[in-house]
């Protein structure tokens, strides 16, 4: 549509690209790319409703985060999640809002959250199950640092019309239909893949609408950033220690730069835009790492691969791992393919802790 053409909507209700074309809203984009969803046996209508529920909950959570410090939503809630971690008030709030948005719209047959012990059956007549980390990096809220929501969508295994079962959720990451994250930062972004590239949508707070702002996101060819909590260096496996020392060596295009926020969504998003690798290794205390395969590992691995990157546990592709329990943990190294493959070489050379 040219700038001189009469708009279908008033100017205050639409955004125009540099070429004068309409910038699609998330729902419009999914409709335009419905073949990508249907290729994997999904339903464009159900997927659109599901993502609409996610973006609604994200807007509600974003509103609460933006007034943190004014409302009584900071600090611990006085309870622990299934992993034994202290729940923050916003953890509980975000979990509730996403559950309500998804359940009230009958868009999934079941939901499983990092914050809950078991999965929750919803509508047996739906095709999808959803797994989520409702508020990643929530401990950063108290110091006004960016946090996020991560979600993963699978087509159910059990017959439509029956209640979901555990096996619907315990699928390897390569079976994902879609995955994404919401970043609550200086602007609020929803980044999503349905298996054909990665696209970012930015919230226009004046309209309450997510517009396409980053089409076909890809990791840059060159990367010079690594993101890890180096405070645990002495407890890392030997291969990781060697890799980090290599990153710090003055040679060729090295040393690389350390950038670590402490929120996986924030660190991953920066590395996606600027190039880099995110590491969460095991330690002597947490021998399987601390991140969850189903709520963090698989969705971020799917997004990374669709953006031209790679994700591994050090020896195996993350999306090939077969989960055996809902809250299974895994080490994860995700980012630019070249950096991940360099890390894998060190892990192969030094396989022992």
UniProtKB/TrEMBL annotation:
InterPro entries attached to this UniProt entry: FBPase_C_dom (IPR044015), FBPase_class-1 (IPR000146), FBPase_N (IPR033391), FBPtase (IPR028343), Fructose_bisphosphatase_AS (IPR020548)
Superkingdom assignment: Eukaryota
Domain Fructose-1-6-bisphosphatase class I N-terminal: 26-214
Nucleotide-binding among keywords: no
Short name of one Pfam family: FBPase
EC id: 3.1.3.11
Cofactor(s) demanded: Mg(2+)
Pathway annotation: Carbohydrate biosynthesis; Calvin cycle
GO MF annotations in UniProt: fructose 1,6-bisphosphate 1-phosphatase activity; metal ion binding
Keywords: Carbohydrate metabolism, Cytoplasm, Hydrolase, Magnesium, Metal-binding
Domain Fructose-1-6-bisphosphatase class 1 C-terminal: 220-347
Keyword hit for Magnesium: yes
A GO-annotated cellular component: cytosol
GO biological process: fructose 1,6-bisphosphate metabolic process; fructose 6-phosphate metabolic process; fructose metabolic process; gluconeogenesis; sucrose biosynthetic process
Catalytic reactions on record: beta-D-fructose 1,6-bisphosphate + H2O = beta-D-fructose 6-phosphate + phosphate
Sequence similarity: Belongs to the FBPase class 1 family.
Name of the molecule in the record: fructose-bisphosphatase
């Amino acid at each position: 549509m040219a700038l001189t053409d009469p708009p279908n909507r008033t100017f205050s209700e639409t955004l125009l690209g540099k070429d004068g074309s309409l910038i699609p809203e998330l729902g419009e984009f999914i409709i335009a790319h419905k073949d990508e969803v249907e290729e994997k046996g999904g339903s464009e209508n159900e997927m659109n409703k599901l993502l609409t529920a996610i973006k609604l909950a994200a807007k509600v959570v974003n509103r609460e985060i933006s007034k943190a410090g004014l409302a009584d939503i900071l600090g611990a809630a006085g309870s622990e999640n299934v992993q034994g971690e202290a729940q923050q008030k916003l953890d509980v709030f975000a979990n509730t809002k996403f559950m309500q948005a998804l359940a009230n719209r009958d868009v999934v047959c079941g939901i499983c959250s990092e914050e809950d012990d078991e999965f929750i059956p919803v509508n047996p007549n739906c095709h999808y199950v959803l797994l989520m980390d409702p508020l990643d990096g929530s401990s950063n809220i108290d110091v006004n640092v960016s946090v996020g929501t991560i979600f993963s969508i699978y087509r159910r295994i059990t017959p439509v019309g029956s209640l979901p079962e555990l096996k619907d959720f315990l699928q390897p990451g390569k079976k994902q239909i879609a995955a994404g994250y919401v970043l609550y930062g200086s602007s609020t972004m929803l980044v999503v893949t349905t298996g054909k590239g990665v696209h970012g949508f930015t919230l226009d707070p004046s309209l309450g609408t997510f517009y396409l702002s980053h089409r076909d996101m890809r990791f840059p060819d060159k990367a010079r950033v690594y993101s890890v909590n180096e405070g645990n260096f002495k407890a890392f496996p030997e291969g990781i220690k060697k890799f980090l020392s290599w990153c710090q060596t003055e040679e060729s295009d090295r040393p690389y730069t350390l950038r670590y926020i402490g929120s996986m969504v924030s660190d991953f998003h920066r590395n996606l835009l600027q190039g880099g690798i995110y590491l969460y290794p095991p330690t002597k205390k947490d021998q399987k790492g601390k991140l969850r395969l189903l709520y963090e590992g698989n969705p971020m691995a799917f997004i990374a691969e669709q953006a031209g990157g790679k994700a591994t546990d050090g020896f195996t592709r993350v999306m090939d791992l077969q989960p055996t329990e809902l809250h299974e943990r895994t080490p994860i190294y995700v980012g630019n393919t070249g950096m991940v493959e360099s890390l894998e070489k060190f892990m192969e050379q030094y396989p022992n802790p």
